[in-house]
Amino acid sequence: MIESHKISQAEKTEHQFRLSSDEIEQWDRDGYLVRQNVFSTEENDFLRQVAEDIVNGKRPFPAVHVNHNALVKEGKAQGDGIYAMHKLHFPSNYCTEFLERTRDSRLTDPLVDLLGPDILGINTLFLWKAPKIGLGFPWHQDKFYFRSRFRTKTTVGTWTAFDVADQGNGCLYVIPGSHKADIFQHDDLDGTQQQEFKLARGVRDEDGVPVEVEPGSVIWFHSHLLHKSTDNHSQRFRRSFVAHYLSAQAEWSSPEKVGRGQPVMWIRGRTYADKIYPAQMNVLPMPW
Ligand SMILES: O=C(O)CCC(=O)C(=O)O
């Protein structure tokens, strides 16, 4: 049943950023895509400043979603302000500038070809990966996590570079074609790493390829795609904005999950009362 019909500004445009047939072929083969020069330096500087204002207490944001670097938290490294940061979690749920970026048609037009016209936002992160102490993420598949909430063929992640991302500062690595595999077992890891991820069992480093990109580039990736990133050994930041999307025609994974957890955000197209519902139109009030 269609509960509401919401047409976004983006839908009224001509879908000018939709995928080409070559890109769709590449997606089907590799499970990821890269476009360069999607966002300008000015646009990214603006959003980076919003993130820094949150870190510096100039903008309200739920403290629970301001996450510091694991080494700093454990007292194994020192750093202040953005030099101590790991990530802001869910910035598009609490900050209009991030919500606007998450709805930008340069990110979402390609999603229409991958997920259909009705799209929700389920997770966002602004990552710092600070010089010398920024920690990598182990091999994982995003669906290992998202499937506990949502039943769907795939979600799609977008990863926007705010700095050059290369092997020196901890770029993403992917295993092309691994999106065709099922979901691996994921095991807990000991030792220093960002504890939010487990390691996909049996994955070989030598199968991974680095995805080195310039600032303003965007990587779209399938939720079965095996990916990781390495620690930042350089003196440079490796900042990025990650947004994960779901079809509004997906379903809750089980009755207990209906409407539970961090609210999903409306991105574009229709919502369906018997599917993932409700979706938030506006940023959430601060929890105080
Ligand atoms: O940006 C990174 O270093 C890793 C991000 C990632 O793996 C993810 O968001 O799923």
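^ 2-oxoglutaric acid complex. Residues 19-272 form a domain with the Jelly Rolls fold (CATH 2.60.120.620). The chain has a mean pLDDT of 93.
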